[in-house]
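Run: sequence + zinc ion -> complex structure.
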Amino acid sequence: MRIPMSCMKCPFELNTVISLGEIELNDSRIYSYKCTNDHLNIMFLQNQKYDILFELAIKAFQDGYYNQAVFSFMASLERFHEFCIRVMMFDKHKDNQQSNFFESFEKMWKMVKKQSERQYGMFISMYFSSFGKMPKETVNIKMSSAKKNIINYRNDVIHNGLFSNHEEAFEFGELVANYMKETVNVLRTELTNESIVDFGAKEQENIKLDFYEKNQNYSEGLSSTQTLSSYMSLALTEFPQFQSYLMSGETAFDQFRLIMQQEGLEYKSSKEEKDYKIISMV
Ligand SMILES: [Zn+2]
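>> structure
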């Protein structure tokens, strides 16, 4: 999947309309690319992985790929649990200035990285230790359309090749969205919204630091940040209605293009425009 990108220097240095293009998603959340005017951009994508995966699921649903939508909704849910673990642990360690939380976390995470059941167990125990209550169990999230819980349904789709359909994929996504909404609200109220924002800021700082350490030929002054307006990022202020977001036909991947078209401006897709090139993916 490609995401919209703009050159941050064109408007300032050349006083021209922003150059836009699309580049492929990567895992590092840092993107380096050049615009047609040869400006080097280094951009940090603020959206969390679960947020992007959720958006991919919506896109797949809108395009009628219901099995792929279920895969991505589920992948989003698993990364959402990871995000919650990170935030809850960060909250417990934020006053400890002695150790680098992010470095220590990565070492610990390696031990559970390959096994989602271990990660889910860690989520339950962290949630219980942070809030003194149990989270809602995912096996208790029941689908009325398919008459089974979301975990069994996901297993049928992934392992037995069950063909999902419009009704079931929709309900699956809506149940996952509602579960995330309830959980985020617990995190917000029990830890405060500042903890989540603070985590995001520190995480960003850490990822950038790591990038510039590994790429010393780049200057830190080159970097900018971007947040795609997605279902989950909108949820930071107020959760949009799932059905209306899904039916709008717009996802975070489409918004730049739609805005440009509405303004009557040229939109350059990297598929058509070879010189909007990516110089390296890190
Ligand atoms: Zn430029």
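>> summary
The longest helix spans residues 66-93. The pocket of zinc ion is lined by residues 7, 9-10, 19, 35, 37, 39 (CB under 6 Å).
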